Amino acid sequence: MSRPTARVLTLLELLQSGGTRTVAELAERLGVEGRTVRRYVDQLIDLDVPVESVRGRYGGYRLAPGYRLPPLMFSDDEALAVLLGLVAGRRTGLTTTQHTASETASAKIRRVLPKHIARRLDTLLESLAFTEQPGEFDTPDAGVLLTLADAVRHRRPVSIRYTDRDARPSERTLHAYGIVAHAGRWYVTGKDARIGEDRTFRLDRIADARALPGSFEAPVGPGPAQRLLSAFATAEYRHEVTLRIHGTVEQIRAHLPVTVASLEVHEPEPAAGQDRATERWLRVELRAERLDWLPPVLAALDRPFVIERPDELRDLVTSFADRLASYARQA
Hints:
About 40% of the residues lie in helices and about 25% in strands. The protein is an alpha+beta fold. The protein starts with a helix and ends with a helix. Strand 1 and strand 2 (about 60-65) form a beta hairpin. The strands form three sheets. A five-stranded antiparallel beta sheet has the order 6-5-4-3-7. It has a four-stranded antiparallel beta sheet with strand order 9-10-8-11.
C-alpha cells in the first residue's frame, strides 16, 4: 500500500472516531501539511464518503451523522478489545436475545484479522479461564434495551409489557432512572407511575417497550446501581432476619454482600484518630425465603454474633453446631 493511500485510510479512521477534527490536528497526526489534508479529504469525497466541512473557529472536518461506513478498521489492540468483550458478554450472559449475534460478529472480525493476530488471539482464548460458569439466563431484546436507554437519557416515560416471577402479565408506565447489569442479568430501575413507587424490573421479562409523550424529573439521591442493590437487600421474603455481629464491615461483607444484607452500626463510630477498621458490633438485616444456608455462612464468618430474630434460625444454628461437633469427635 502506498504511503498516500495509507494516509487517506488513516484519515478515514480518525474521522470515524467521531467529532470534528481541525485541519491542524489532522495534519499533525498524518505528518503532512494542511493543503495535503484537504487533498486527502477530496479523495474521500470522490469515494462517496460523506466528509463535511465545518466552518468557524473550531471548524474542520467530520463525517456526516448517521452514515454507516462499510469498512471497519481495527488496530491489533482494538480487535483484541472487541473480541474479548464479545467473549466476556457470552460468558456472563450479558447479550441480546439474538443469541448468535455475538458469535457471528466475532466470526466477521476474525475473518479479516491478519493471521498472526488471529493465532495470538486463539492462544489467549485457550489460556483464558473464568471463575463463574457461563451464563444460562434469559437475555433481553435488543430493541427493548435501546428503547429504555433512550428513555433514561431523555427522561421520557415508557410503556412496558411485563411478566413477573409468578407469570402474571401487566402493562406499566415507567419513569426509567437507569439500566444496570448485575450478576449476569440486565435490570431497569425507575418509578412505576401507576402506584408512584420505585421498582426494579428484569429486562428479559419485558416483552415490549414504547416511548410515551411527556417527561419527568430525574430523582435525587442514590444512583441506579445503588437503588438496585438496596431493592435486593430489602425485598419481601418469607423470613426477616436480624443479627448483631462483632467485626469489621469488610469481614461481614465478605460473606454477606450488599445484595444480601444491610448493615448498620450498633455502637458509636470510632472516635477521631481511631482506626475505622476496628471491630465493633454491627446490626445486620436481611430477608430470605429459606434459612438453612445461613448457619454455614455464620460459621465461615467466624465472628461473635447474636441472633435477634427469628427463633427458627437460632434452632438451625444450634443443630448445625451439634452436627459439626459430632463430626469432629469421630475417629
